Structures are given as C-alpha cells and as structure tokens.
C-alpha cells in the first residue's frame, strides 16, 4: 500500500470513528468529569483525569464503529448518513470489526490500572455500547438507553475515585439520562422523515407533536436533579451560577427547535456541548473556591466529602 492509499484509508477510519466530529466525545466526557470532581471533592488525581479522558475518546470511537456496523443497511437510506464509510462500502465490515476490537482493547488496558469495581463496571459499559444500536429496532425511546450508555462513565469514575457507588453518582446518571433524551431528541428531529420511511424508532417519533415539550421537560428535570445534588454535596455558589448559565442555554434551545427546522434542531444538538461545559465550569469553580484542585497520585491533602475523609490518591492503584 502506497502513502496516498494509506492516507486515504486512515482518513476513512477517522471518519468511521467520528474523530472529525468531537461533539459525541464531549457529550460523554462532561458527565464523567462532573462525577470525577464530585466524587473526589474537587481533588481527583491527574492520573484518573487522563485515564478517563482517553478512555472516553476510545470508547466513543469504538461505539461509533459498532453503531455503523449495526446500522449500515439503514444508513444508506438516510440523507445525513448515506456517505459514511461503511454505508458506501469504502471500509469493509471485517476492517470495522478489527478497528472496534482494537479500540475496545486499548480502553480496557487503561481500566486495568484501576480498582476491581471499576473493571467490573467497564464490562457493563461495553455491553451497553455494543447493544445500544439494536434498541432503535424495538424501544420507543432508545435515547433513554443511550443516556445510560453515554453516562456510564459516571459510576465508573465514582468507583475509581471512591471504591464504591454513591447516591450522587446514581442521581448524576439519572440527570444524564434526561439530558440524553433531550439532546438526542433534537438530533432525531433532524432525521424524522427518514426514520419514518425506514422504520427506525426514535423519541422524536414517539413524542410526536409533543417533541418540543418533551425536550424542555427533560431539561427541566435534569436541572432540578443537578440542583439537588449541589445541595446534597454542599457545593458553593459558583456551581449554581454554572447551572443557571446551562439553564439559560437550554432556554435558547427552545428558540431553535420550536420551528422544528433541520438546521435549528441540529444547531441545538451541537450546542449541548456548551451546556455540559457550563455545568463542569460551575463544579470546578465551586471546589476551587474552597482551595480544592486536582492532585498527583498519592499526593495532596486528605479529601473530605460530606465530612468523611478520603485518602488522597488511593483510588489510582497500579495493578500487578
């Protein structure tokens, strides 16, 4: 294979992994970082930050490949997806299977540096990522399943930092499910006509004329849960400032989706990156205002969560 052909093939793999479209990675990464910071009371180890950031990128990329393997037959008939490498035949199914397997193995190698509970949860995360594409065949709101799959970095990050799963972790996951239903319904509103024609189930079709109301109700529920988490964790005022900014952005999304135009709905979907970023900025600032910052593995002062001391750096355990 000459240099030109290799470059072309790598470009196809990049598109298959959606590296040219980072929005999906960010929508997975923000909730994971929310959970990591809250579980560590603002003092996660840099090692965990790097592991979960790289792991998110790898598993999102693997998920995209697995999604296209499952949906190649449908993608050929949808305007937005008909030029994907698997749909056009530019990448073979065998190549895609090998690529997905390689990405999953790389992600699992990262998890092996963490504790046993996190390793067990990673198996569940892989199952969720692999089975999500199939839910569009039979679930009325597959976006709820997507919210679990996209948000499973939350319990994993909590387990890696704390060695257990907390109430706040489950509440964050619930908030993420509502968020995923909201933003992926906006996304599904773009493909509504194509989805009706090919028989795919989506929340946009299930909600029908109440789709905009459903999106805004999910946003409201998400904000309410996150506000309660802030109260339960005793977070300082910058957290609520970040949450207020995120809520204002959600209000802006209403102006984009109320007309149900493809361009407006897609713009609202993409804008959710800033929603997640605003919430994380609030969390980061709330802990920073108390002097809490990330620490090196095994370094820093003891951490405190709800008056319980946590040994700094203990979640990051290099396994033999």
Radius of gyration, whole Å:
20 Å
Main CATH class: Mainly Alpha
Low-confidence stretches: 299-320
Relative strand content: under 5%
The number of domains: 1
How far from one another are the termini? Answer: 40 Å
Order of helices and strands: HHHHHHHHHHHHHHEE
Number of distinct helices: 14
Give descriptors for this structure:
mainly alpha; single chain; two-stranded antiparallel ribbon; disordered C terminus; 320 residues; Tetracycline Repressor, domain 2
Description of the structure:
- The protein has 320 residues and is mainly alpha-helical.
- It has one domain (9-310): Tetracycline Repressor, domain 2 (Orthogonal Bundle), CATH 1.10.357.140.
- Helices cover 72% and strands 2% of the residues.
- A two-stranded antiparallel ribbon has the order 1-2.
- Strand 1 (303-305) and strand 2 (308-310) form a beta hairpin.
- Helix 3 packs parallel to helix 6, helix 7 (142-150) crosses helix 9 (167-190) and helix 12 (211-233) runs antiparallel to helix 13.
- The chain is globular, with a radius of gyration of 20 Å.
- The chain starts with a helix and ends in a 10-residue tail after the last strand.
- Mean pLDDT is 90; it is low at 299-320.
């Amino acid at each position: 294979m000459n240099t030109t052909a290799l470059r072309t093939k790598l470009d196809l793999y990049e598109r298959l992994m959606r590296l040219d479209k980072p929005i999906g990675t960010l929508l997975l990464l923000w909730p994971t970082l929310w959970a990591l910071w809250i579980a560590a009371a603002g003092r996660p180890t840099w090692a965990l930050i790097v592991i979960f950031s790289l792991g998110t990128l790898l598993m999102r990329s693997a998920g995209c490949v697995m999604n296209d393997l499952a949906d190649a037959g449908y993608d050929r008939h949808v305007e937005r997806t008909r030029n994907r490498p698997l749909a056009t035949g530019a990448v073979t199914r065998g190549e895609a299977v090998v690529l997905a397997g390689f990405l999953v193995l790389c992600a699992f190698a990262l998890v092996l540096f963490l504790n046993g509970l996190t390793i067990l949860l990673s198996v569940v995360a892989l199952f969720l990522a692999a089975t999500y594409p199939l839910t569009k065949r039979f679930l009325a709101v597959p976006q709820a399943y997507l919210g679990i799959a996209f948000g499973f970095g939350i319990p994993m990050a909590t387990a890696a930092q704390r060695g257990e799963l907390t109430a706040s972790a489950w509440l964050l996951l619930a908030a993420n499910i509502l968020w995923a239903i909201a933003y992926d319904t906006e996304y599904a509103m773009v493909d509504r006509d194509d989805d009706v024609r090919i028989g795919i189930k989506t929340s946009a079709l299930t909600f029908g004329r109440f789709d905009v109301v459903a999106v805004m109700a999910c946003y409201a529920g998400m904000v309410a849960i996150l506000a309660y988490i802030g109260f339960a964790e005793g977070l300082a005022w910058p957290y609520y400032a970040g949450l207020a900014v995120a809520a204002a952005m959600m209000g802006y999304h209403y102006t984009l989706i109320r007309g149900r135009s493809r361009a407006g709905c897609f713009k609202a979907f993409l804008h959710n990156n800033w929603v997640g970023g605003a919430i994380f900025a609030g969390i980061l600032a709330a802990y920073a205002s108390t002097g809490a910052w990330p620490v090196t593995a095994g370094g820093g002062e003891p951490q405190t969560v709800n008056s319980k001391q946590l040994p700094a750096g203990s979640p990051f355990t290099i396994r033999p």
